[in-house]
What does this fold into?
Amino acid sequence: MTSVAATAGARAPVRLGLRENLAQFTLLVIVNAFVGAMVGTERSILPAIAEQEFHLVARAAVLSFIVVFGLTKAFSNYAAGQFADQIGRKRMLVIGWLVAVPVPFILMWAPQWNWILAANALLGISQGLTWSTTVIMKIDLVGSRRRGLAMGLNEFAGYVAVAGAALLTGWIAARQGLRPEPFYPGIVFVALGLGLSVFVIRETSAHVRLESIQRGPSSAVLGAREVFWRTTLTDRNLSSISQAGLVNNLNDGMAWGLFPLVFAAANLSLERIGMLAAIYPATWGVFQLGTGALSDRVGRKWLIVAGMWLQAAAIIVVILSARFAWYALGLTLLGIGTAMVYPTLLAAIGDVALPAWRASSVGVYRLWRDLGYAIGALLAGITADVAGLAGAMWFVAAITFTSGLVAAVRMNETHQAT
It folds into this structure.
């Protein structure tokens, strides 16, 4: 890949490319694994805590923690995109980890449900700042040629860690109870993620400057308002990507909140519920290793469309299931469908947005994508209270299929295979 002399005072030339930046890229992958593990600690057990310890009955109330998480994560994603160019990527990453420090302690000892909501507000802010920043930094490092692979590796690390932490906390809860022991690993995750971010991660802004030079005068800076509206509505590719990301996380918010309740209603044990909670993000994480790289070869559009439709079909499999094995099949298919979409959407943003305003566009996309958590939890909770768990899941499946149809009609291919 191309290299140039670094700016004055730097000790090594700045290069673009995965191989050229392998050490820092690998460290960012590890950091993102700890980011994912933080949210995984509550993935399998928080609905049970809501029902068993705080005696919440209404589904909308049980899912309120996901609404809080989704809203705060969405807006902190936007902030990460806006401020990464102004104060630096590394500084945003460190701030995100500092916000996460109190989270496991609050989850362990919260005396009221409002404390759980406060912990999820902090977790959402932390996730938005840390995960968005690792995405932006990896895009900075690799350049355009292997962007899909880079995003696949990033999301692989994050969601395999979500799965591992969900499995671990479910296993601990089955043996030690719902609190405080399942949240002990969260203390370790925060300490390691913060330590790596402070002491070993390096700033990547110089890589952005290099890519801007290579792409020439077309890489002009846009105002925040113009980037917002381009990514949200006026650019047919960026807006198609944003709506698909929102709906993807809408059905993930439903899965996070309702699936554990469905499995509990089927008389599955906490340990088995933890296993099922891990299957979906584990499949999602592992398959992203292939789908991200595949999008560099075959393009982005049809992987996104097919992935959304597979997710809709997978939700229907879960609805029609009544046994552990069939639930596991549905969650595996849901994970594969999500893996087809998740890194591909991020890579497509990188294809379309120019280097000078790419971080802001990623922030806007992730704003809409993670608002999907809140919208999905609200829709699923309200619909479940009115029409039952199955009715809510059918509704989300229909929305997911429609989102794929929108991308099929409106979106152009953003990447030419090399």
Strands lie at 3-4, 14-15. DSSP finds 16 helices and two strands in the chain. The mean pLDDT is 88. The CA atoms of residues 50 and 271 lie 17 Å apart.
